[in-house]
């Protein structure tokens, strides 16, 4: 089954590439740079295939061994920062290998310069992300189980081929599951019937836990029959008798071409310069983000990425309480990225970029259009109308957007890095797709304090949250940085404030990792500034960047809840660590069936100093989603984000002299 699934996947990709090449899509970059000229250039197909061949030749892998992750082994940070064009550099590939039958996980590093394995180790108790192979195993095991078949027949379902099986990460393990060490998943069943949107017809009450190593059912639960929605919740254009007239065409074009330049994986635009990679786990990653100020490039961000996600659902029923997906580490979010289209996810003036990935067999292939980049107008950049001379001084606000979109089963996530001409870097995550709904006998909302809201007859939307943690390795004018918390204070009425209108800002240096675990405070308009520790601007203060939160929420799981231990990063909004090679993921390296307390809580345990150090900021933002009927059957886009905005980094408005 695994072999057949991978062959089908490769054939699909081959067909897509063939169509793109011979029919032709405009603004698609069909070939990546083949000359490796920088340590952070993405891996080529040849490099991936070479590394896999070396591992297979030197390690006795079984036929069922899979490669959940193959990616660039990032060089040492100092090596990258000291690199000069033409200088030789170390080129390595990181491989994660999982032996299904042995239930063992290995990681290895292959040196492409010397063509040998430089590291190889078994990861005790480490389970890789859920893969397509796991889906195939779960599907076969569940549908072959007599108890499951009887449960379906009790519900009037005899056409088992029309039942979809979804494979979920195990979530919080029972003591028995934790002790066994088996690789498991929770299998959910959906009835497709005569309509293709099977997410509208959950087969409620049935939960199958599958032992993926032995290809057998570990536990089976049937809590009783719940009605299945009989309505048509398909959402393609053919599902509706009446269509809303679309607005008239709005064409976006740049007759003189784009303003940004792409060379390999380096982008230049309006003073900004940066590199990017697509990582199979993290998705879109930015590197070496700099701003050209006067005669020099000034460093801002060495590496920025979505480190982890947590999506806890708020229903205490055993069939639901395990649902707390870690979409980055449990599902390899980057490998689930969509192929984008111009005029749809990306406007017509955009450019689509290639990505080289590897399938679970270890075979490399190129996918066109997983990343999109485009310029957009966003209103007024700055303006003033001078009444004296009746002149209007104004500049339009142009932004550069780099985007990827990934689909994790029912939900779709758009990850956007937005560059502004004034030196601001913004992150915006957009959420759309389909709510994970619960079957119910109810046709009207019955309880005010229930665990969700009725979306339609027999369809219940469970209250849940989405938390995103971003890892930001900031290097503001170099690696020696400090971090300050800024709190706005109201001054009490008195001699120094007789009218009670005075406002001050109190800056507090966050000196250690544990003292830098902080939360938002709307009463004090709290923000955090990362500043140079060894440089000053023309006003005698350190140049810095402020992390400016936008909308956010708190984790509502109460103290003592296991999800607070597993998703420790979501219990606070702001964390800072001293840079250490290998500390990459807020929820730990292996969140699938992980030990509780991994990730950030462990990273800060040694409570290192943050004063004048190379520091990493970890910011958690979230959305609390109380579903509504308007979110069904496809949810209009919700967004959440934050900004990194210069504060004293420039001597003045950096775009005051922008030409008209």
Report on the architecture of this protein.
The protein has 660 residues and is mainly β. Helices cover 12% and strands 38% of the residues. A ten-stranded antiparallel sheet has the order 15-16-17-18-19-30-27-26-24-25. Strands 9, 10, 11, 12, 13, 14, 23, 28 and 29 form a nine-stranded antiparallel sheet that branches. It has a four-stranded antiparallel sheet with strand order 1-2-3-4, with helices on one face. A hairpin with a 4-residue loop joins strand 2 (92-99) and strand 3. The protein is globular and about 80 Å long. The N and C termini lie far apart (61 Å). The model is unreliable at 1-26 (pLDDT under 50).
Distance between the termini: 61 Å
Average pLDDT rating: 93
Largest sheet: 10 strands, antiparallel
Number of helices: 9
- Portion of residues in beta strands equals 35-45%
Helix content: 10-25%
- Rg, Å, rounded: 26 Å
Q: What structural category characterises the helix and strand content?
A: mainly beta
Low-confidence stretches: 1-26
Overall spatial form:
globular
The count of DSSP E runs of length 2 or more, i.e. the number of strands, is 30
In the sheet with the most strands, the strands line up as 15-16-17-18-19-30-27-26-24-25
């Amino acid at each position: 089954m695994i072999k057949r699934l991978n062959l089908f996947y490769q054939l699909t990709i081959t067909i897509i590439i063939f169509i793109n090449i011979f029919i032709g899509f405009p603004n698609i970059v069909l070939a990546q740079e083949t000359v490796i000229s920088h340590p952070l250039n993405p891996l080529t197909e040849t490099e991936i295939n070479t590394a896999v061949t070396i591992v297979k030749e030197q390690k006795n892998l079984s036929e069922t061994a899979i490669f959940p992750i193959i990616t660039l082994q990032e060089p040492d940070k100092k090596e990258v920062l000291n690199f000069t064009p033409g200088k030789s550099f170390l080129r390595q590939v990181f491989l994660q290998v999982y032996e299904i039958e042995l239930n063992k996980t290995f990681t290895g590093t292959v040196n492409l310069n010397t063509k040998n394995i430089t590291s190889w180790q078994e990861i005790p108790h480490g389970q890789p992300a859920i893969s397509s192979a796991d889906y195939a195993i779960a599907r076969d095991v569940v549908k072959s189980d007599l108890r499951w078949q009887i449960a379906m027949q009790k519900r009037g379902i005899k056409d088992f081929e029309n039942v979809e099986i979804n494979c979920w990460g195990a979530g919080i393990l029972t003591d028995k599951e934790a002790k066994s060490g088996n690789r498991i998943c929770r299998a959910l069943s959906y009835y497709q019937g005569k309509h293709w949107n099977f997410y509208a017809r959950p087969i409620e009450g049935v939960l199958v836990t599958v032992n993926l190593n032995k290809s057998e059912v570990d536990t089976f639960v049937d809590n009783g029959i719940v009605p299945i929605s009989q309505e048509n919740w398909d959402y393609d254009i053919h599902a509706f008798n009446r269509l809303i007239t679309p607005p008239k065409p709005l064409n976006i074009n740049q007759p003189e071409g784009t303003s940004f330049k792409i060379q390999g994986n380096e982008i230049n635009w309006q003073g900004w310069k940066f590199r990017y990679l697509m990582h199979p786990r993290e998705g879109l990653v930015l590197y070496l983000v700099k701003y050209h100020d006067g005669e020099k490039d000034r460093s801002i961000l060495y590496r920025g990425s979505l480190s982890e996600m947590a999506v806890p659902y708020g229903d205490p029923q055993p069939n639901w309480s395990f649902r707390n997906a870690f979409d980055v580490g449990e599902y390899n979010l980057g490998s689930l990225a969509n192929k984008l289209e111009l005029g749809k996810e990306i406007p017509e003036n955009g450019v689509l970029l290639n990505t080289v990935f590897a399938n679970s067999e270890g075979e490399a292939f190129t996918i066109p259009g997983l990343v999109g980049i485009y310029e957009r107008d966003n209103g007024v950049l700055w303006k003033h109308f001078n009444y004296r001379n009746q002149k209007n001084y104004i500049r339009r606000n142009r932004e550069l957007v780099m985007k990827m979109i990934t689909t994790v089963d029912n939900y779709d996530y758009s990850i956007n890095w937005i560059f502004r001409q004034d030196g601001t870097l913004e992150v915006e995550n957009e959420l759309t797709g389909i709510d994970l709904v619960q079957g119910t006998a109810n046709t009207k909302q019955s309880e005010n304090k229930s665990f969700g809201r009725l979306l339609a007859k027999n369809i219940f939307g469970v209250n849940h949250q989405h938390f995103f943690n971003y890892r930001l390795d900031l290097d503001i004018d170099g690696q020696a940085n400090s971090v300050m918390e800024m709190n706005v204070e109201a001054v009490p009425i008195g001699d120094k404030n007789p009218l009670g209108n005075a406002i001050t800002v109190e800056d507090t240096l966050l000196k250690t990792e544990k003292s830098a675990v902080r939360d938002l405070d709307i009463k004090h308009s709290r923000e955090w500034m990362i500043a140079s520790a060894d440089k000053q601007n023309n006003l005698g203060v350190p140049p810095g960047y402020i992390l400016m939160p936008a909308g956010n929420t708190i984790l509502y799981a109460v103290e003592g809840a296991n999800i607070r231990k597993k998703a420790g990063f979501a219990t606070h909004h702001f964390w800072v660590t001293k840079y250490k090679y290998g500390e990459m993921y807020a929820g730990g390296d292996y969140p699938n069936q992980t030990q509780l307390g991994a990730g950030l809580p462990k990273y800060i345990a040694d409570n290192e100093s943050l004063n004048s150090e190379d520091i990493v900021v970890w910011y958690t933002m979230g959305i609390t989603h109380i579903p509504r009927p308007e979110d069904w059957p496809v949810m209009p886009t919700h967004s959440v984000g934050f900004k990194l905005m210069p504060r004293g980094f420039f001597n003045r408005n950096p775009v005051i002299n922008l030409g008209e």
